[in-house]
Write a structure and sequence with these properties.
- There is one protein chain.
- The N and C termini lie far apart (about 40 Å).
- This protein has one domain.
- The chain is built from 5 helices and no strands.
- With about 130 residues, the chain is mostly helical.
- It has helices at about 1-10, 15-30, 40-50, 60-85, 95-125.
- The radius of gyration is 16 Å and the shape is globular.
Length: about 130
């Protein structure tokens, strides 16, 4: 869900990314055992970060995508951990970051080009044509 929402926010913009982040995060929360809204809030934070102009001049588009996804996965997990700690859940920070967030960031970054291409194709197929008068 993370990569789909992030990729859609990249190709279609923050507004549509926020809608799908809300819907996708709610679905993930309903299927998980955690507090309702944690994944949704973390996805919304990440979508807002994707809309920022950081790193626009760094390397090729693939390098930017890999760095952006890696950074956003770390932020996603940190937001989730902060919310969990704030709601009274016990959080092992060192374990969670080293055993969950970093491997997840590496995996998601390596898979991101394979998700980005179909999302770009879908964006082109569903793009609204504007009428020029």
């Amino acid at each position: 869900m993370f990569l789909v929402v992030l990729s859609w926010a990249i190709v279609r913009g923050v507004d549509e990314g926020l809608v799908w982040g809300f819907i996708g995060g709610l679905i993930v929360d309903l299927l998980s055992g955690g507090p309702l809204g944690v994944s949704m809030l973390a996805l919304l934070v990440v979508v807002v970060l994707v809309g920022q102009p950081w790193g626009r001049g760094v390397g090729s588009s693939v390098v930017r995508l890999l760095l952006l996804v890696f950074f956003c996965v770390i932020v996603y997990h940190l937001v989730m951990l902060i919310i969990l700690a704030w709601t009274g859940h016990t959080v092992g920070w060192t374990w969670a970051v080293s055993r969950v967030a970093l491997p997840s960031a590496l995996l998601n970054a390596s898979l991101s080009p394979f998700v980005q291409r179909p999302m770009s194709w879908l964006e082109r197929r569903t793009r609204r044509e504007t009428l020029l008068l």
